[in-house]
């Protein structure tokens, strides 16, 4: 008889870029990543909005699913539009929910917030890459997870797989985060870098879309909503705030002209979209603004798709974490890292 631990049974909601990359790494490329050795996942359900739903309590053949979606653009023939995902969470037997649906600012993080709430309520662990749950309902969901004695993990929600929350929770144990500043939206950083090379805003945006960096509807990036959501997540999780993206002061990078970028360059500076939060008058002030930095400043050196986050704490001088040209594999790693953390306790 084998002593190997039983695999964690996962229900996956959303099977787009991130879901597929996680599945490719785990089920097709596993041999290349020996560090994932302890992680055994059995997928018992996958639901998408328009690409089908599959349920199999005995475990889904994930190689077949990946082949099918690459071939047909669907995971199954079943129509998903009317599937009540909250009911699916209630009625399916699983150990961990992978919430990988899209962020909705307009719907205040729903339906992802409802999915996470339902799973935690049922006493199931949750791993999500979606910013919505922490940007709109962190305090409630974290409390629910504690009450139900399960984990609510979201490392890839900010800076993909870079260990932002792991750093603050584990490596900086005992430090209180008093503020942060960061370049956290790759699309706008890429646009500003291209404008510095002389490209007009609209062309730089088209190039970002062509490379698959910007979202199909890029307003979330351009108008600062993605950055505001990340600012809200960091504020709520690291600074015990209770803000939403609507509370974050915000500007649009569309207001920056090529002459603004070039004037900054003449001064020896670079313009960046910066997310910030800090304590102010007993409350918290959070913002997404365009700031100018001397070219030798660590923030100015983060070009293209790169990201940087500086954490200001009470016990340590500022700590910076820099991410150079992240890809989807970085995001998938954040999800896998959370699953590995669960594998220790599940
Ligand atoms: N891409 C990145 O590098 C990255 C990095 C960090 C965080 N994230 C976050 O990770 C999440 C997934 O990103 P992604 O790039 O994989 O997005 P994506 O490619 O757009 O895929 C989203 C998936 O969620 C499904 N979906 C959306 N709304 C749904 C709903 N209401 N009910 C059921 N299914 C729904 C979509 O269904 P259809 O297939 O039918 O459209 C699709 O399968 C997002 O919240 C994103 O913000 C992404």
Q: Could you characterize the architecture of this molecule?
A:
By secondary structure, the protein is of the alpha/beta class. The protein folds into two domains: 8-161 and 329-343, 3-Layer(aba) Sandwich (Rossmann fold); 170-325, Dihydrodipicolinate Reductase, domain 2. It contains twelve helices and twelve strands. It has helices spanning 17-27, 62-72, 85-91, 112-121, 132-148, 164-171, 186-196, 201-210, 219-222, 225-239, 258-266, 328-343; strands spanning 8-13, 41-47, 53-55, 96-99, 125-128, 152-153, 177-183, 249-250, 269-280, 283-294, 307-313, 319-323. A six-stranded mixed sheet has the order 3-2-1-4-5-6, with helices on both faces. Strands 8-10-9-7-11-12 form a six-stranded mixed sheet. α1 links the parallel β1 and β2 (41-47). The longest helix has 17 residues, at 132-148. The radius of gyration is 21 Å and the shape is globular. The two termini are 21 Å apart. It binds NADP nicotinamide-adenine-dinucleotide phosphate. NADP nicotinamide-adenine-dinucleotide phosphate (NAP) is lined by residues 13-19, 47-51, 85, 100-103, 111, 129-131, 156, 160, 328, 331. NADP nicotinamide-adenine-dinucleotide phosphate is lined by residues 13-19, 47-51, 85, 100-103, 111, 129-131, 156, 160, 328, 331.
